[in-house]
Amino acid sequence: MMLLRRGEFHAFEADGSPHVYLVPSAAVFRLDGASVAVLDALGTEDLSPETLSERLADRFPAPVVQETVHELMGAQAIRTVQAPVARPAAPGPRRRIPLTTLVLNVTSKCNLSCKYCYEYGEDRLVEPATKPRFMSEETARESVDFMFAEAGDAPKVHLTFFGGETLLNFKVLRFAMSYAKEKAAALGKEVDASLTTNATLLRDEIIDWMVEHNVGVTVSMDGAREQQDANRVFANGMGSYDSVIPRVKELLRRHRRRPIGARVTLTKGNLKVREIYQHLKHEVGFYEVGFAPVTTSWQRDYAIQDDGFEHMLQEFQALARDFLATSLEGRHHGFSNVRDTIEEIHKGVAKAYPCGAGLGLLGVATDGDVSLCHRFAGSDSHKLGTVRDGVDHARQDEYLRSHHIDNKTDCRTCWARSLCAGGCYHEAHTRYGSTAQPNLHYCEWIRRWSATCLEVYATLAARRPEFLRQFDA
């Protein structure tokens, strides 16, 4: 006898209606009354289709129940009961994934001494003296050659400049951009460039270059004067807000070709997310603002603790409600954390890995060593090759196999794993000493934040579906 069982999903309410987020397929469904009844009936026991129809006969005709069962099985919300089978080993990528983004750490030097910077903490990956502090033009040229070689047939590649303070090596940025565009034209490809900066070195010449080459810019900034100057300081301890703000406003005034975003690092003492957003978005003028908790060992006095994560979640959820209300009115909001998650939900992203590190994204250290991402640049234990000799694909494949979500035991039963996949490798390395370890310290935070984003998404899908069309490309 065939028995039916509920599949793996997260049930939630949005726009006054029941919904499910289906874990295997990463799909979102709005449920009708018959679907709710079928899932409720299967909530505590396995039932045959005949028994299920009998139990619901007083509410729904048998043909309606049968059709509902068929639809729910097609969506994987329910399934037939089968004998358990051994879980196969995680296969890793089935084909060679071309490189789409290369991050050049053009310098490990910075003109700020941010108190939370992972470059100089006890979780530092490598002594600064073991690598050149500035990338040379020759290494930049080799990096660009490497990027196109690893990109394969991809028509577009993304070249990102990072630091340290990226603009300390503006000479190499300018050289690399010119060389990359020249080579792209010869190959019939396109280069999209971006960079991250603390904005202290912005001047007319650099802004002109950004505009000319349509460079995307993210500014690392932590809020208004009090918040910015608490951690983002110069070597003499002086705050950076007064130096940064006029330069940022000039950048925003002149660079109109692409939206300019701010990236905020949240610490134990800096968790006023809504206040920070209000200042950076509406008073300074950034197009969007994104937030990330500080990456550090838990012993540091600025590390976010349990009560801090709870406060941060409440602030995020309040901003998400603002995002929803603004979007329903057809206006742009600018809270990138919710927007990015909504885009993943809309596209049905089911992550086997938390990000593109070691997959479609690689980082290059100042000496040309290739690593998982920019945060591991300079770490010999996370090195995958060099821009001169190429990537050790056997090592890359082994890394991806061992870090597949199926190999993270704690994640296997989590309904949010398709949106998280265990979290940032560098965060895990810093907290637990291993990139393979899931970030258990914020699991509940991720689940609750994912639930909030699902509610926002489903409400937009019901009441303003045209908003979601921006993610169809």
Describe this structure in words.
With 473 residues, the protein is of the alpha/beta class. It has two domains: 80 residues, Outer Surface Protein A, domain 3 (Alpha-Beta Complex); 283 residues, TIM Barrel (Alpha-Beta Barrel), CATH 3.20.20. Strands 11-10-9-8-7-6-12-13-14-15 form a ten-stranded mixed sheet. Strands 2-3-4 form a three-stranded antiparallel sheet, with helices on one face. The chain starts with a strand and ends in a 10-residue tail after the last helix. The relative contact order is 0.12.
What is the secondary structure topology, with strand pairs?
Blueprint: E1 4-6, E2 9-14, E3 17-22, E4 27-30, H1 33-41, H2 49-55, H3 62-74, E5 78-80, E6 101-105, H4 137-151, E7 156-162, H5 170-187, E8 190-197, H6 204-212, E9 216-220, H7 225-231, H8 241-254, E10 261-266, H9 273-284, E11 288-293, H10 306-328, H11 336-346, E12 361-364, E13 369-371, E14 383-386, E15 390-391, H12 393-402, H13 417-420, H14 425-432, H15 443-463
Helix content: 25-40%
The averaged pLDDT comes out at: 93
What's the order of the H and E elements?
A: EEEEHHHEEHEHEHEHHEHEHHEEEEHHHH
Say what the CATH topology of the largest domain is.
TIM Barrel
What CATH architecture label of the largest domain applies?
Answer: Alpha-Beta Barrel
> How many beta strands in the DSSP annotation?
15
Work out the oligomeric state of the chains in this entry.
single chain
Tell me the count of domains: 2
Structural Rg: 24 Å
Sheet with the most strands: spatial strand order: 11-10-9-8-7-6-12-13-14-15
* CATH class value of the largest domain: Alpha Beta
Uncertain segments are 120-128
Class based on secondary structure composition and strand pairing: alpha/beta
Main sheet: strands, sense, barrel: 10 strands, mixed
Overall 3D geometry?
A: globular
Write out the CATH superfamily name of the largest domain.
Aldolase class I
By DSSP (H or I, 4+ residues per run), the number of helices equals 15
Task: Report the β-strand fraction as a percent range.
Answer: 15-25%
N- and C-termini, Cα separation: 45 Å
